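Researcher: Re-running this chain for the archive, since the previous output was lost when a drive failed. Same request as before.
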Amino acid sequence: MKSALKKSPIPETRAYLARMLSEPVFDPHWHFHSENQLFLVLKGSGTRFIGDSVKPYKAGDITFTGPNLPHLWRSENEEEQEMNIAWSEGVVIYFREDFLGKNILQSDEAIRLRQVFHKSLRGIEFTEQSAVTLKRLMLELLPMKGFDGILHLLKILNFISNTKEFKILASPGYTNTLREADTERMFKVYAYVMKNFKRKMTLTDLAKLTNMTPTSFSRYFKQHANKSFSEFVSEIRIGHACKLLIEKKMNVSQACYESGFQTLSNFNKQFKSITKRTPLSYKKEYEVY
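Model: Regenerated structure tokens:
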């Protein structure tokens, strides 16, 4: 089985790496690496896992993940993946935190950059007009070479250091406790849940999948995901329901049962707990008039 922990994507002779992605799936494995990563989704949708954050993703989303923060973008189009169709397109920029040397990060001028690097350890999603501007800046970097590219990367970092239009993704208490072998096991769990969340799943099912007892699996999952397995499944189901409400224009009842919930009352309770809104108010908020 291939290692889920990637080697450095940046050649030793380079300060950064920026490239266009056009692939069946963005991430074949739940993984982490030592580089900072800026990532823009140009095409595709599915579920995004960053640390203990589980959210739907769509075209236009931009995230910044710091070193050793586990992440995975899982496309919802499994048939296209199996047929090797390039359903997913995006732009990724990798760079090391000290690519200009350690001294400059300790300077007074770099205080905001140090702050944004610290926030990136939990993952950052850029929103509103800042996401639009950042998309343009990232696309402009792609053809650049030499020192022009480094100067433009600094322009991008200066922009994200000053914007207030962002959300922190992983919870305050999240720390990466994964070892390389754990990423394989957690990816197997995530893949199973994504494929089966519409039906009833038990701890016994997942225990068999991971060669553990139900009690051991429950403890293991909470340790590495920073939440219980049932909470994780609810997040996946609610994320799917959100897509059905907005993109498929389903009513609340349809979205409830299509997402694996057995009762409307439990669906409404879980939906409000996770999104801080009722399904109806969420639908109205994102409705296009």
